[in-house]
Amino acid sequence: MTRALVTGGAGFIGSHMVDLLVATGREVRVIDNLTSGDQRLRFLEAAGVGVDRLDIRDEASARLIEEFRPDEIYHFAAQMDVRRSVADPIYDAEVNVVGTLRVLGAAAKVGARVISASSGGCIYGEADPQRLPLDEQTPKNPDSPYGITKMVMEDYLRFYRETGGLSYANLALGNVYGPRQDPAGEAGVVAIFGLRLLKGEPCSIFGDGTQTRDYLFVGDVVEAFLAASSNGDGETFNIGTGIETSVNELYSRLAAICGVEADPEFKPARAGELHRSCLNSAKAGSILGWSPQKDLNRGLSETVEFLRSQV
Question: Model-level pTM?
Answer without folding.
Answer: 0.96
